[in-house]
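Researcher: Here's a chain I'd like modeled. Treat it as a single chain, no partners, no ligands.
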Amino acid sequence: MKKSGILNRHLAGALAGLGHGDGVLICDVGMPIPSGPRVVDLAFRAGTPSFAEVLDGLLDELVVEGATAAEEIREANPEADRLLTARLPGLTHVPHERLKELTAAARLVVRTGEARPYANVLLRCGVFF
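Model: Modeled as a single isolated chain. Structure tokens:
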């Protein structure tokens, strides 16, 4: 058994299968999940695990070359926007409806227990070399 890093076997296996350019959606409990991508639902109860915990855990495991969030996050959830802006230089914002369209092409959806508006981000995987 792993003793550090991501212990959830479903998430660890899904991350191992990602390649350059693949999309990973980290989303709150309210984000509609498209059919198609692999889904790892980590939600245990409202707020657990938090969006920040999941984001930080995934950023420890992935190389990210781009990220997109809903522009509505700026006003509706400025704390989450500050978190994303600090962790993801070059973060782009698009209308929420466009973010939902983009998630259809994601390879992996990771659902958190977050229950605050627009706590969602689409990451684009990079390579480590």
